[in-house]
């Protein structure tokens, strides 16, 4: 979906396909047929943006066979789908029964992360619509904090990899005329946990093609104030490459037994749900939600937020809620001013099938309806900010 900002620039809205697990190219094609096109039809649009997730095997197939890449581009066109952004965070296995810590490997100290991200940049340059010259890719925020933290060699290795990537992106732009930018995506528990953590490493790299991806669920989970965070990025000259529109799980009164019970229903074995609370002594947290609800791992006199991407249009029932207000505030700062701070927005609720059983979609139709409802909410927020939806 495309929107015209009052300054005349085009802002893209997509939804991320990592909600539909697929490791192979055949699986990606099935996603387009079974999910993405039906969502587009529900929205009544001739064209729908998707934030494509290409796992390692699917990406390698496309890199090694130009005919397959041309066929994928043709299929996107025929189904009324377009790609200006990729989710390069998960490498493989995102559809496994247990993902947890695996999603953080390989990290930016390992050669496979650089190789995979280079592949994704080359593929995105070929998949961009004919009238688009800029693509974006979100990626791992360097590494999970252990064993990276405290290892100066790890920081040097990651910085070197990002510098090499920037040089490759420069060469790609010169060769194709397409500008691809990469955004580190701060996430609780990682070396770059907050937007503030991103400033030093991105300043060290010092290249316009390497910036930040602001995920509004992660921002909220770490209790970051959107205005403060975005102003600090601007002051440091850090470019906001893209933003993922998402909402975290919020518990206002975690000391109450009924709140603990409600939270426990969201503690599931597939994904990691880092949980945080903001205290007078600073941010406190656990690596997963079950650690928080099981005992005294976290202070419970202040609200808790968990890294669980809840559907934008359907916050959980009381006594829980979502951090949709943080998304609204962030979006207003990103695109509500005289010029957009980013032009690529991506709804990323990959946890539909991880919701408590009674809230999960049971059919493809129900899932498509839910994704379409999320995109409708995001569209309405953009229109309310003065953007005009384009055909």
How many E strands? Answer: 15
Order of helices and strands: EEHEHHEHEHHEHEHHEEHEEHEEHEHE
Query: How much is the radius of gyration in Å?
Result: 20 Å
SS element count, helices:
13
Q: Give the oligomer, counting copies of the same chain as homo and different chains as hetero.
A: single chain
User: Strand count, sense and closure of the main sheet?
Assistant: 8 strands, parallel, barrel
Ends apart, CA distance between termini: 8 Å
Given helix and strand content, the structural type is alpha/beta
Query: Strand share of the residues?
Result: 15-25%
Task: Tell me, briefly, the overall form.
Answer: globular
Strand order of the largest sheet: 2-3-4-5-6-7-8-14
Proportion of residues in helical segments: 40-55%
Topology:
Layout: E1 2-4, E2 10-16, H1 25-43, E3 48-52, H2 56-64, H3 66-78, E4 81-87, H4 111-127, E5 134-139, H5 145-148, H6 152-176, E6 179-184, H7 195-205, E7 210-215, H8 216-221, H9 226-236, E8 240-245, E9 247-251, H10 257-264, E10 275-279, E11 282-286, H11 289-294, E12 304-310, E13 320-322, H12 324-335, E14 344-347, H13 364-384, E15 388-389
Parallel strand pairs: 2-3, 2-14, 3-4, 4-5, 5-6, 6-7, 7-8, 8-14
Antiparallel strand pairs: 1-2, 1-15, 9-12, 9-13, 10-11, 10-12
């Amino acid at each position: 979906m495309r929107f015209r900002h009052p300054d005349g620039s085009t802002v893209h809205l997509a939804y991320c396909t990592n909600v539909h697990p697929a490791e192979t190219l055949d699986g990606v094609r099935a996603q387009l047929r079974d999910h993405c096109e039906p969502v587009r039809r529900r929205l009544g649009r001739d064209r729908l943006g998707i934030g494509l997730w290409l796992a390692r095997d699917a990406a390698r197939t496309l890199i090694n066979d130009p005919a397959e890449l041309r066929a994928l581009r043709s299929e996107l066109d025929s189904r009324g789908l377009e790609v200006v952004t990729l989710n390069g965070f998960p490498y493989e296995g995102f559809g496994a029964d247990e993902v947890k810590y695996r999603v953080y490997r390989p990290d930016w100290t390992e050669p496979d992360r650089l190789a995979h991200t280079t592949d994704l940049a080359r593929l995105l340059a070929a998949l961009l619509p004919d009238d688009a010259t800029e693509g974006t890719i979100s990626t791992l925020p360097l590494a999970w904090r252990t064993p990276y933290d405290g290892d100066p060699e790890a920081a040097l290795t990651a910085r070197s990899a990002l510098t090499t990537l920037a040089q490759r992106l420069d060469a790609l732009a010169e060769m194709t005329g397409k500008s691809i930018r990469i955004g580190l995506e701060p996430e609780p528990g990682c070396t770059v946990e907050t937007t503030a953590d991103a400033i030093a490493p991105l300043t060290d790299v010092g290249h316009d093609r390497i910036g930040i991806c602001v995920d509004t669920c992660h921002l909220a989970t770490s209790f970051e104030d959107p205005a403060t965070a975005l102003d600090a990025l601007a002051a440091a000259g850090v470019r906001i490459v893209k933003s993922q529109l998402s909402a975290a799980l919020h518990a206002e009164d975690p000391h109450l037994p009924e709140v603990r019970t409600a939270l426990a229903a969201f503690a599931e074995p597939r994904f990691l749900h880092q949980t945080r609370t903001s205290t007078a002594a600073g941010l406190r947290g656990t690596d997963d939600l079950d650690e928080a609800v099981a005992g005294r791992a976290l202070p419970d006199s202040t609200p808790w937020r968990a890294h669980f991407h809840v559907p934008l249009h359907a916050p959980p029932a009381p006594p829980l809620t979502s951090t949709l207000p943080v998304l609204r505030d962030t979006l207003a700062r990103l695109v509500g001013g005289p010029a957009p701070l980013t032009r690529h927005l991506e709804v990323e609720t990959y946890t539909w099938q991880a919701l408590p059983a009674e809230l999960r979609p049971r059919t493809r139709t129900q899932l498509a309806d839910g994704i379409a409802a999320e995109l409708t909410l995001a569209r309405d927020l953009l229109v309310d900010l003065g953007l005009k939806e384009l055909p």
